[in-house]
Write a structure and sequence with these properties.
This protein is mostly beta strands. It has one domain. Helices cover 10% and strands 37% of the residues. The chain is built from two helices and twelve strands. Strands 1, 2, 3, 4, 5, 6 and 7 form a seven-stranded antiparallel β-sheet that branches.
């Protein structure tokens, strides 16, 4: 069986909705509180020197790696410690495109490394009526005076660093 997205060892298990994500991963995500963010790995397209946002975002918290990926309009997968960022990605149908993992390749990510996690949230988007993103689930990592959000950018990942914009409903995860 091939690896999902051309990533050795990676297997996506897609979920829709906050309740499904919380049931599958809530306690483990909540347990990240108190840990330190040590890496944010992004898949990087070397041919045009840009983030390849279709691959998972890898968040490492002192040895506990969370892999978050969005696709379609409402699906998200969370996996744990399956992706080795030392191994290149072989995206299906794009064998000539070199894709590698890079730590903190975007300037706003570098300043987050070393910060303690003060909480983890599942965030639900509720924008204007008719907004295609309504109900999509994002992962929010509270780092004290800022938040790191991995969200559904409508069939790929998006990242936000800073204050949480209006439109997100916050659901803080606890260890229960």
């Amino acid at each position: 069986m091939d690896d999902d997205f051309g990533i050795p060892g990676y297997r996506a298990r897609w979920l829709s909705g906050r309740t499904a994500v919380a049931a599958a991963h809530g306690a483990r995500l909540a347990a990240l509180t108190g840990r330190t963010l040590t890496w944010v790995w992004l898949a990087w397209d070397l041919s045009d020197d840009s983030w390849f946002a279709d691959c998972p975002v890898l968040l490492d918290f002192a040895g506990e790696q969370v892999e978050v990926n969005h696709w379609k309009f409402d699906e998200v997968t969370v996996s744990w410690n399956t992706v080795d960022p030392a191994r290149a990605v072989r995206w299906p149908g794009m064998d000539d495109v070199p894709i590698v993992w890079r730590p903190e390749p975007l300037p706003e990510l570098a300043g987050l490394v070393g910060r303690p996690v003060t909480g983890v949230e599942l965030l639900e988007w509720h924008g204007d009526p008719g907004d295609l993103a309504n109900g999509t689930v994002a992962l929010g990592v509270d780092l004290g005076d800022t938040v790191l959000v991995v969200f559904n950018a409508l069939d790929e990942n998006g990242l936000l660093v800073g204050p949480l914009p209006p439109g997100y409903r916050r659901h803080r995860l606890t260890g229960r």
